[in-house]
Design brief:
Low-confidence stretches: none
CATH topology: Fumarylacetoacetate hydrolase, domain 2
Radius of gyration: 17 Å
Helix content: 10-25%
Number of domains: 1
Bound molecules: manganese (II) ion
Number of helices: 4
CATH superfamily: Fumarylacetoacetase-like, C-terminal domain
Structural class: mainly beta
Order of helices and strands: EEEHEEEEEEEHHEEEEHEEE
Number of strands: 17
CATH architecture: Alpha-Beta Complex
Strand order of the largest sheet: 4-3-15-8-9-12
Amino acid sequence: MPYVLPPAAVPSVPVHGDADARFAVRRIYCVGRNYVDHAKEMGFTGREPPFFFLKPADTLLAVGAGVTGEMHYPSLTQDLQHEVELVVAIGVGGRDIAAQDALSHVWGYGVGLDMTRRDLQGEAKKQGRPWCIGKAFEESAPIGELRPAADCRIDAETEIRLDVNGNTRQRSTIGKLIWSIPEIIEHVSRAWTLAPGDLILTGTPEGVAAVGRGDTLEASVSGVGSLRLKIV
Ligand code: MN
């Protein structure tokens, strides 16, 4: 059946080891405050159940390996902040997935940035309004190439890190996640039906801070991948 207007392009991310194929993205889920020291720097205890927000799939800014992506400094903010996060890519959908079965639903992993207009998010929090304007805007989800799960080595010691202009701003380990990857999948799939193509950004460690035009961000998760981004 024809559409009255041409359909929008399918957002997608490059895939490690296969230059011809891409991972088509359906939804982008994000976990809030999932490292204790980040929860504390945001004024919370880190002892709450997991909570989630979404970014539309077309807020994705895919950045290939060996490339410096370019993110345009967004409108309306004086406080654009970085949040480096491990990305989980769902390959097998489902609902009410038990944590013990969750990893069989994972296609692969990657590195992402949950870019945040912190001033607008802070105002929304204060007013009890949705976070959309602070979190879900154009190019707010830069994501590097995805690596199939079988090729990733992720354990408690896996390092997650973000450097800005060569200075380390965020550095932690996956072992410090409050809610583990299987637990996150369990929780998300209770509230929504997961499907192939869904991405989950699993939360950021402490050290979030502002960036400006001209800054270069280097995000990495050891054994998974990295992502280079310039703010323009
Ligand atoms: Mn985040």
